[in-house]
Amino acid sequence: MSAESRRNAIRRYGRQQATGLFLGVLFLSAFFLFERVAQSWLRATLGENIFFWGSGLIMFASLLIPPIWFRYLAVMDGWMYCPHCGGFFGAVRAVFCLNKRSQCNRCSAEVEIAPINKRHALSDNAYLIGGSLGVLAVMFAVSRVM
Ligand SMILES: [Zn+2]
Fold first, then answer.
1. Which has the closest alpha carbon to 25: 53, 66, 55?
2. Which of 13, 97, 99, 131 has the smallest number of CB atoms closer than 10 Å to its CB?
């Protein structure tokens, strides 16, 4: 049971990292579109200076907040930590070690984790690839409008 839960936590972590990135790019694209539509009105209302700094700030925030939020969720997840030494399994090297030898890469203790399920791996990869393509399509569409 705990092996299954840990495998699920690792999968969720991977998907959440991807989702954070996708959302960040989508929010940024949405902001670019909004700014393009409302630019003259914003400039007139806020003034040149506030407009410049404000849009810079929102650009960074829209790109960074979703990944940081999902990162925060992962850090709160108890399954993402080694039961022996408390090491975090979020790093690529730690996940690699877990998948390969069911071992913590920090203390080398055996960690219970279910083996990779082919169908799950396939759907995770489909999500990653589909999501990336979707985000690329949105970026392309936005770049044509700008
Ligand atoms: Zn450990």
1. 66
2. 99
Tens of pLDDT, residues 62-119: 999 999 999 999 999 999 999 999 999 999 999 999 999 999 999 999 999 999 999 9
> Tokens in use for 136?
């690329």
Which is nearest to 106 in space by CA: 90, 117, 120, 121? 90
Q: How many CA atoms lie within 13 A of 9 on its CB side?
A: 24
| DSSP class of 102 | S
CA 20 to ligand 1 centroid distance, Å: 27
Q: What is the pTM of this model?
A: 0.86
- Identify which of 5, 6, 28, 24 has the alpha carbon closest to the alpha carbon of residue 16: 24
Q: Label residues 105-116 b or e (16+ Cβ within 10 Å = b).
A: bbeeeebebbee
C-alpha 89 to ligand 1 mean position (Å): 9
Q: For the chain, how many residues are written?
A: 146
